[in-house]
Amino acid sequence: MVFCAAPLAQPEYPLVAGWIGLVGLVFILHFGLFHLLSLCWRRTGINATPIMNAPILATSLSGLWGQR
Predict the structure, then answer these.
(1) From CA 40, how far away is CA 19, in angstroms rounded?
(2) 10 near 21, Cβ under 8 Å?
(3) 6: number of Cβ within 10 Å
């Protein structure tokens, strides 16, 4: 989303491109970077569980924050 869709929307719709980029950045953080950070902390011996557990599988907002 960040590298493909946002640049395509930018010339004609800069606000839409900004929102696409923002959503893509949130996905990158929650699906990858935060999990890698948790793995690094666990490697040093600190019990740091990932903050998200497959957030894309949540069917509701309460499911996202309560179960995932």
Answers:
(1) 30
(2) no
(3) 20
For residue 11, how many other CB atoms are within 10 A of its CB? 8
Residue ranges of E strands in the chain = none
CA distance 59 to 64: 7
Please list, residue by residue across 38-52, b when 16 or more beta carbons sit within 10 angstroms of its beta carbon and e when fewer do: beeeeeeeeeeeeeb
Determine how many CB atoms are found less than 10 A away from the CB of residue 20: 20
Q: What is the pLDDT of residues 21-68, one digit of tens each?
A: 888 888 887 777 878 888 898 999 998 877 777 777 888 888 777 765
pTM above 0.70, yes or no: no
Alpha-carbon span 39 to 45, nearest angstrom = 10
